[in-house]
Records
---
Amino acid sequence: MTIEELRKIAETEREAERKFQHRVCVCTAAGCLSSGGDHVLDAIKKEVVESGMKNEVLVKGVGCMGLCSAGPLVAVESDGKMFANVTPEEAPDVVSSLDTGAGGPEECPTNVPFFERQKKIVLENCGKIDPERIEDYIAHDGYLALVTAIAEKSPQEVIQEIIRSGLRGRGGAGYPTGLKWSTVAKTGEQEKYVICNADEGDPGAFMDRAVLESDPHRVLEGMAIAAYAIGAQKGYLYVRAEYPLAVKNLKTAIRQAERLGVLGNSICGSRFSFHVDIRLGAGAFVCGEETALIASIEGKRGTPRPRPPYPAESGLWDSPTLINNVETFANVAPILRNGAAWFAAIGTEKSKGTKVFALAGRVTNTGLIEVPMGITLREVVNEIGGGVPDGKKCKAVQTGGPSGGCIPEAHMDLPVDYESLKSIGSMMGSGGMIVMDETSCMVDVAKYFMEFCMSESCGKCIPCRAGTQQMHGILTKITAGEATPADLALLEELCDLVRNTSLCGLGQGAPTPVITTMKYFRQEYDSHVAGEGCSAGVCAGASKGGHEEVAK
Amino acid sequence: MLTYQGSPQLPSDDKRWKIVEATARRHGREPHALIETLHTVQECFGYLDDSALRYVAMTLRVPLSRVYGAATFYHFFTLKPKGKHTCVVCTGTACYIKGAPALLTAIEKTYGVKPGETTPDDELSVLTARCLGSCGLAPAVVLDGAVLGKIGREQMLGRIEKGIRQ
């Protein structure tokens, strides 16, 4: 495969698309699939054939368009229209609206902040290309970065480009990606591995899922570029077994890429070979931690081990291993294609580029969004998210999943970047963003996350195994209205202990939801303990027995 | 010391064992194929029973304790057969905030089963999922593979009843 050959495939594909007068894209990613997107696709395809418009209308199933709450979504590319909540019965309306330009099912305006305030890099192809066809990806400049890198750049130059871009790990911690790559590259000539962490375990997060389902080749290309840069020959994609569509699309993508020679042996006729294998996760949250993930790929129980040595020096089968998140890999090809300076111009001083968030909870527009770093939380929730529905007031925004914190409404003018979120006790995390209104009790939310960490603790280190259990017990007592002020003091002490003495990120992060809710919503804890009840009306027990307990 | 030459005898003539065997072979019977092989067993049989665990241990030449350890460590694997119908209630953050606990209470009241349990007549298994990734449809329930989004208590109970009666 040469650059010319790649360009030819792209041109042929674009020309084939241009032949059609109308292009109709139907979302068939998980969100819309759950509301019947596949049936809508079949119905529209059938309708097009029956009305004899087979040669004028191209119908294709595409990935996530973002606005999952209005699914199934159908976009008419040729006139920029989008239809929401489409049913298979409405297929004739969709098709007849193509020629007249009017009518059709419920229209979804695309000139609203939800679409206009976003900046798409990672999701640029999501909702535009057919994830099951490599040609469609190539027609959107796919694999151009990989082929160009192999033909024209040295591995060192690729790493320098990534360093200059300022890209940081999108898994949550924000470690500089270029630095990680160069550490692995420096380990000399030996067996090395590239691992893509797609074990998206945070409840309320579905960014990686959407990317894998909608644009799988982008992740493979990113992995292959990384492998070229660090000198690895073998890669693993560790995907949750709970994401069957993502697994299916990835398998198809790997097969197509190998057939075309952009993966596999001697890629593009060079000496560089790279094979990717899929490994299924089995529902253990802790496997998102890199050393636990490696143990799981080795076929063991997913328990973490102390670091150092970091995987960059000794990882999978004790070989140097590069582990990056799905979103990190998805950023690699655009950076090489458009240059590091282009990427570095987006975002804030220390956090470059964009971040994908799964916006959910008590917000009007739920779905997948990509915003430039530095945008404020208020803009995300009120403008892109369309605010809190039913005239309710926003109370808090939760970022970072079970290891993240609850940010109160008062802090919503904070820019979204790694440092700012950390400064108020939360974290960027992988990208779950849950909006809560007055109907959520913060103590109950803290209990929910603690229950999660308690059951997901691998049991290896005592602070996490026993500490989460004890903290959950106290939180249960508080919500039942049976706690005393002494319990609150003990809870605070335990938070400190578990955070500082646990082995891995799961234990260290487990107290964060409690710490942030105690910091910003202390009055809710106090009123539960004092028997004044739960202001959100969630904890039924808090208003009854509690008072007598304290009085005794 | 166990010294097996080649593959051990299949537990029964059930053709599904050949699929399991193929997975083990594809990974060269290396111990690291343990989780992949367990996935195949569960995909073929629906759950992992004693004979399956023993067979996987022998064919991959790993101690039975390690097989049992992995099978019980990972939530995805189940050692008990499921009922005829399964109802998975998503308890991800978005679904939790939008009322998943009430759905679980309703199921428990109506059918007397808690998450992870099966009704005595083997009709219905109730499970919870950490997050289905369908947060836009919260609260979401998966009934026999079909996702029911933005669902209320009564509506859900109606669908379960209909599913069981069919």
---
Amino acid sequence: MLALIAPTMCLAAPSWTIVPAESSLSFQTSQAGGTIEGSFKRFDARITFDPADLATSHVEVSIDIASVTTGVAERDQELPKSDWFDVARFPRATFTADRFHALGNNSYVADGMLALRDIKAPISLPFTLESQSDGAVVMRGTVDLDRVTFGIGQGQWAASDIVGRKVTVVVRLRARRSG
Amino acid sequence: MSRQALARYGRIAILQHWVSVALIVTLFGLGWRMVSLPLSPSKFELYTFHKSLGLVVLALSTVRLLWRVVSPVPAPVDGPVWQQRAAAAAHWALYALLFALPLSGWLFNSFVGFPLSFLGLVNLPPLAAPEPTLKENARLAHLWLGYMLLALLAIHAAAALHHQFVKRDGTLSRMLPDLSQATRRPT
């Protein structure tokens, strides 16, 4: 049995651990035409990734929705409610990706699924990788999402753009090889 | 300027005055309506419209004040000196409030940390960094400056109507378009 597993493990892409203090999951949208910014303060990621072995690479990011903040109390007290993230029923969102392709120049695209609220939809996240002198890697990715795809903003909010439908998600991860 | 022209306010001053009246009436209406609505896209839209019109008042009042300083105005109407002084004080207090009210709203918006967009077209910077401990003070300042403006406007309008219809000295007519001149001009 071990003999069967061991070679597989050797072939698999290396795993990486994120450095939370130097990683962020933020977003930008609009409120009544003005720009607003927010972020999810708590998330974790399980990453196995090898640029030379994209076929066995796999990423799973789990986001604690209750950690969302936009820096303004009036907004932050609305976001957990059922019209928006409905944190009581959907406390976590996950992004899973196991299909990657290289675009050259350390640029890649991850084709994955985002499960947010009660909706699971495919998204493509373009990202870049940058090796650091200490051996860590910094990943940067940006993707525009339509909040309505995931039911963020129910009822009248779904039909209105007064809280911007387009949400630009900006991911920045600093990760170290852990295996 | 001829002496006859000084018997009344100029056309530009008259236009500025009545546009201000229309804006202020609309702003009070929007203000009361928007705070009473439950959170909804319509509430956001009313707030946006209120903030945008407030910015128009701020811009218009700047132009008006400059115009008031550089262009001649009619002499005070006859009456007791205390009334003339009270009228002058009320006019300058109205100008002060036409600046203080929009600025206090802008400051309130800044302390809360909300963006400020003129009709969704142009983003304006905050007047101060978000400060949750001061937002209630700013909200109260905006509210009470609003009540002060309302009270002064009531006195201002009552005085104008009193002059026009009780004393019959044509005070209000000086701030109305000169229809006799307008109809006479083509001949």
